């Protein structure tokens, strides 16, 4: 117990002395030993690496798991050294809801069967996402975390030790300087009654201070070399993180490619289903005719066939498109459902998903409208359009 008390008192004294030296340096009242330029550059590079690695690590965590509560839960599991439970992804949950809904609506109905198919592909997307999250956590997040919680802690510890050695060195320099000044002052104004004892004590004090300075300089140089070797290892850290970054990009590319393939397969599956949704043109002021209603119940989702127009030749001879003027009222906006190639110069070619202005003129076939897109004008088939209100 006595030994521990003495050690505690000694450590407290050292800490107090270092605190005084540090404070005087900050106030400009004491000299400070500067590190060499190479070591300073290594320290600045290490600090930059740590700061940006930490930011990249935190933002990658947000990217892979946007839910902060889930991230906190995973953090506690890691600290408790327990396996993180498998969590259902949002896509998998959506797929499950779709399939459950299909059971209620009836799997034999068009809507129910489509829900089952889409739900299955949503679950596949969720599985691909889970695999991507696991690969990214292992190949990218874990190496970054190991650096921040392992290598960087070791570097920080050695840097603190180097700072303590520097403070001890500067304290020894200050002691030696004071001893030299006292010795010189004593030599300049000798006391004839106590000349020998005082000179002897001052000389011994200066010798002890010189010895302490040599020991402190040796320990400082040794610690500076250890710290330098650790900081030079940052280059290896960059190489390792570069490899991990490539693996993260490859995992990300594979994940998006897999999602793209799943969505292409889903589109192919949906194209085989009956198209039971109808184009609602009941509120339009333009008569769509019987052919428009029947096109909404075609068994395929492919573009409808060109509407038959026996009077097309007659209209072409009597109706000149360039002379047609839009009415003052009755024009509508329409969304193009499918691509359409004009059969002749009186018709207007269409691209799917574009918006055009349409209207009718007296004497036109009810399966056709006049469409305008900018300066272009021509007849367009009603079955290729979705009339907007």
TrEMBL record:
Gene3D superfamilies: Arfaptin homology (AH) domain/BAR domain, SH3 Domains
Superkingdom of origin: Eukaryota
GO BP of this protein: membrane organization
Keywords: SH3 domain
BAR domain segment(s): 24-279
Pfam families given in the database record: BAR, SH3_9
Compositionally skewed regions (Polar residues) per UniProt: 288-297
Domain SH3 residue range list: 329-389
GO cellular component terms attached to this protein's record: cytoplasm; membrane
Residues spanning the membrane: none
Protein family membership: Belongs to the endophilin family.
Protein name: SH3-domain GRB2-like endophilin B2b
Gene assigned in the entry: LOC109079940
